[in-house]
Write a structure and sequence with these properties.
Nucleotidyltransferase, domain 5; single chain; alpha/beta; 47% helix
């Protein structure tokens, strides 16, 4: 099973492609897309192009994206929402099921600490995956992919089922990553 993790951002978009075979995790590819100092629309276009190329190269079966952090300023949340939209569109265009996880859930699954800092995320990526991420965006993206793999509640369908059928079966059997306990219908 190969999963793409995306840590969206308009200035730096981290990505991590992680493969799982049994209990073994392997980094297929990871890095950070840095579109440069351009107007917003052009930065988002470059991120979309980079994610499209990455998906074509790595051929993940599913994508996982970090959800918006609610404590951000309204302007930061808007910009992050636009970058998330690009990440979601790239995955949807490739036909990948997309799963979203809260930052604290990702940190808990990756480090065992839901409030882990950037240094702890980088250290865990080195220790757990043997990766050497240069930026926290890359480590976060790897963590998002690992979190998704940890949350999967089933085995991958047998070989020969085909990529599309395997992806549909995977999406149908996943547990929700969060539940709404507010009681509203």
């Amino acid at each position: 099973m190969i999963v793409l993790g995306i840590d969206p951002g308009s200035r730096r978009c981290g990505y991590g492609v992680v493969a799982r075979e049994g209990a073994r995790l392997t980094v297929v590819e990871s890095g950070v897309l840095v579109p440069g100092d351009l107007p917003m629309a052009q930065r988002l276009g470059r991120i979309l192009d980079g994610l499209d190329a990455l998906i074509a190269r790595a051929r993940p079966l599913e994508a996982s994206v970090e959800s918006v952090f609610s404590g951000a300023s309204p302007r930061s949340a808007l910009v992050l929402g636009q970058a998330r939209g690009v990440a979601l569109a790239a995955a949807a265009r490739a036909g990948l099921p997309v799963f979203e996880y809260a930052p604290s859930e990702v940190k808990l699954a990756f480090t065992g600490n839901g409030r882990a800092g950037k240094d702890q995320m980088l250290r865990t990526a080195r220790m757990l995956l043997g990766a050497a991420p240069g930026l926290s965006d890359e480590a976060d993206a790897l963590a998002i992919a690992v979190c998704h793999l940890a949350r999967r509640a089933f085995a991958v369908p047998a070989a020969g089922a085909g990529r599309a059928a395997a992806a549909r079966a995977a999406a149908a059997r996943l547990r929700p990553s969060r539940r709404d306990h507010r009681g509203t219908p």
